[in-house]
Amino acid sequence: MSSAAEILWRPRPDARPRLHDFALTAETFGAPAGTDYDALWAWSVDDLDAFWRAVWTFFDVPADGSAG
Length: 68
Prior knowledge:
single chain, mainly alpha
């Protein structure tokens, strides 16, 4: 029995994480452009209204009314 774990899945080399796509949407709501995870997180807790508007837009949340 081998002690090395078998790799079951690997993303395509050209695949982008969904977080990257969300960050691009978040930029239109005031998130810093070209940001890393920590800066995106800081923006999300510093500007809750803009963050949730970005979430509503990115995930196309069905609702009556608006995000803000």
